[in-house]
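Entry 14: structure prediction run for Putative inorganic phosphate transporter 1-7. Input pasted below.
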Amino acid sequence: MAGELGVLNALDVAKTQWYHFTAIVIAGMGFFTDAYDLFCISLVTKLLGRLYYTEPGAAKPGTLPPRVQASVTGVALCGTLAGQLFFGWLGDKMGRKRVYGLTLILMVVCSLASGLSFGSTPEGVMATLCFFRFWLGFGIGGDYPLSATIMSEYANKKTRGAFIAAVFAMQGFGILAGGVVALIVSYAYDQKYKLPSYAQNPEASLDPAFDYVWRIVLMFGAIPAALTYYWRMKMPETARYTALVAKNAKQAAADMSKVLQVELEAEEEKVMKLTENESNKYGLFTKEFAKRHGLHLLGTTTTWFLLDIAFYSQNLFQKDIFSAIGWIPPAKEMNAIHEVYKIARAQTLIALCSTVPGYWFTVALIDYMGRFAIQLMGFFFMTVFMFALAIPYHHWSEKENRIGFVVMYSLTFFFANFGPNATTFVVPAEIFPARLRSTCHGISAAAGKAGAIVGAFGFLYAAQSKDPSKTDAGYPTGIGIKNSLIMLGVINFIGMLFTLLVPEAKGKSLEELSGENNENDAEHAVSARTVPV
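Run finished. Output tokens:
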């Protein structure tokens, strides 16, 4: 390539080496924390309901009122959406590295603070929890565009997909860790307090000491984030940002010489030529961007939006599904802490058997099969399994067929992770120009979180039973789990169609994909835009 910079080419052709793995771990630990913090709340919401909303003498233990439940589970997602847009933009303005430490500090502080509360009234506790979980989400949001962009800019072109997917796959371990921490804490308390179930003795089934359980589970999220802070601060800025955006060829060559342990020359003239080139100056809200990348951005935002509706609604009504099929007994048959244990056990099993393996299948195969094929296949199988669960739903709800239901349900998760859940994260970090890469990834990720909010809030209400006597306390009747699953199947099918807008990035350099590496780069941009069929 006539206009390609030596320092970027050196990164593209570098053999897989130690610094690649340190980058995966540093970026991945952020993701581990993100997933832990976002998903651990679903393990303790039932306990919060018992602690703060149990009426003396009621037939059933207390549950969070619908508005409180929606706020507690959804407020972090709203924070994440805002954080993705803000930090995505900031990452292109100030540099990836400078913003990276900031998001981590925010996550550590807010993880710890969400386990504290001002006042002991239910309102006070919930308000504090929601306030800090919003800002926790805000920090988590920044991690999405920054981690993906840093990893894609550090990686070589042969295994770039696997590296970015490996960072994302740490999410699986985060979900797993949430379940394990809740299991350990609840088991320890269960052993110590050995209390009767709610049906046997409503007052005795709850001990004030259980208030520590949810706080410990939430605060634990600060530990992995705090551990990686030092390493994040030692990481040099990516060469692509330094050279193509900050226009500092000397610094880029010096940083990468250290990282790659080879001598690289500073190509100041080339950097000036590339960055002064008119076709490398267009902004996000320009006709030129719309012409070159408009359809790409539409593809990455819509697919992530549609995927997350399905993905987050599954995760959120997971415990309701477990109750419906009998994995978790009715609330009144357990004491407060035993319920946490049962929910955590079910979530850990699902994570272990389907969530975690799905991610690593993507890591192993993404640079062979390509992003496009994996995303299309994932959406296809999610559609198939959703319909297979929904149409004979009555059959699955009978006692002897419950294991079959859980297997099918796990397969849906498996193909979400060996499919669009991973690829929607990878692709936006590869196909946009360096000066807009973090912003465009943030926009795509924020569209995903908007889908998560629709999934989390919408399906909280939609999955309620059509029979008024069977709905959860305080909820209006919904369309039932069967119809909710049919809707999710349709959403996955639409996701399959929008995947056709997303280009294949396998085996190409980032500059080739975005058309930044050549003075007359129009033909590159076009060739990178064609979609494999």
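Notes: The chain has a mean pLDDT of 85. Will compare against the previous run tomorrow.
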